[in-house]
Specification:
The protein has about 260 residues and is an alpha/beta fold. It folds into two domains: about 1-80 and about 155-230, 3-Layer(aba) Sandwich (Rossmann fold); about 85-155, no CATH class. It is built from eight helices and ten strands. It has helices at about 50-55, 95-100, 110-120, 140-150, 170-185, 195-200, 225, 235-245, and strands at about 5-20, 20-35, 40, 65-70, 70-75, 80-85, 155-160, 190, 205-210, 215-220. The strands form two sheets. It has a six-stranded mixed sheet with strand order 6-7-8-3-9-10, sandwiched between helices. Strands 2-1-4-5 form a four-stranded antiparallel sheet, with helices on one face. Strand 9 (about 205-210) and strand 10 form a beta hairpin. The longest helix is centred in the C-terminal third of the chain and has 18 residues, at about 170-185. It is globular and about 55 Å long. The structure holds adenosine-5'-triphosphate and magnesium ion. Adenosine-5'-triphosphate (ATP) binds near residues 43, 48 and 212. InterPro entries: AAA+_ATPase, ABC_transporter-like_ATP-bd, ABC_transporter-like_CS, ABC_transporter_ATP-bind, P-loop_NTPase.
């Protein structure tokens, strides 16, 4: 039996007006995501990755094509969809605990507090419940935004470069944690990242986009066993393939030799 697609993007085109002139941002994007899948998206800066996530989330409209979640238009009823933005977007006048609990207003207080506590602990922010966003570092604010995204228990979680502001160790810890949560909760995740290793480590499939107007160059299926071994030959082969796509339209070459 075929698994149904929870996200279906079909022949999507998107333009923005810049100086009253249309600028093509996304061109003929088609992507199907199955329930419980982890999709990573890589591509040059400005190629339309954030715009694509915002369209899937229903925050930004589009000209042509079709975008559906479980067969519903993104503005209609459908699976609960959350987004962690590239900038953390915490509300500056609310304490961290209230930012994380922001979407949980319909829960009884005790349950809400417990959820907030659990998710702050998960991202390593226990003890900062009563701080305000201005009192946290960039990476800590980003972790609070991830906690807010997860606490809402969405069926689909869209993550826009969520670990960009984190140090290498915290980043690796958060990557493991997000995989654990995804496996446990069965959340469908679509994550934009500029980190090629991260795209391979997390993605069941990696969407490689061209420079603007963003088109899909390739969708690479990842062997999960190989992706777990960051120093392995197969991991290196995925990496080379993605870099080659990145450098396709330039004179640069990806010539790092791997000693395995
Ligand atoms: N609201 C908007 N109005 C006009 N142009 C916009 C708007 N939002 C984005 N753009 C333009 O659309 C293009 C794609 O932007 P987007 O933020 O989707 O890129 P991105 O791939 O996420 O880049 P990055 O990797 O740098 O985050 C950019 O040229 C940007 O200037
Ligand atoms: Mg972006």
């Amino acid at each position: 039996m075929e698994t149904s697609n929870i996200i279906e993007v079909t022949h999507l085109n998107k333009q923005f007006l810049v100086d009253k002139q249309p600028m093509e941002v996304l061109h003929d994007i088609s992507l199907q995501v199955k329930q419980g899948e982890f999709i990573t998206i890589v591509g040059h800066s400005g190629c339309g990755k954030s715009t694509l996530l915002k369209i899937i989330c229903g925050l930004v409209g589009y000209e042509d094509g079709q975008v559906e979640r479980n067969g519903h238009p993104v503005t209609g009823p459908g699976p609960k969809c959350g987004m962690v933005f590239q900038d953390h977007r915490l509300l500056p006048w609310l304490k961290i605990k209230d930012n994380v609990g922001f979407g949980l207003g319909d829960l009884p207080k005790q349950e809400r507090d417990e959820k907030v506590r659990k998710h702050l602990e998960l991202v390593g922010l226990a003890g900062f419940e009563n701080s305000y966003p201005s009192q946290l570092s960039g990476g800590m604010s980003q972790r609070a935004a991830i906690a807010r995204g997860l606490a809402n228990n969405p069926t689909i979680l869209l993550l826009d470069e969520p670990f960009g502001a984190l140090d290498a160790l915290t980043r690796i810890q958060m990557q493991k944690e997000i995989l654990r949560i995804q496996e446990k909760e069965g959340t469908t995740m679509v994550m934009v990242t500029h980190d090629i290793d991260e795209a391979i480590y997390l993605g069941d499939r990696i969407v490689v986009m061209s420079a603007r107007p963003g088109e899909i160059k390739d969708i690479i299926e990842v062997d999960r066993a190989a992706a777990g071994k960051r120093s392995g030959a197969e991991f290196a082969a995925y990496k080379k393939k993605i870099y080659d796509y990145f450098f396709e339209d330039s004179d640069e070459k990806y010539e790092v030799e791997y000693v395995i």
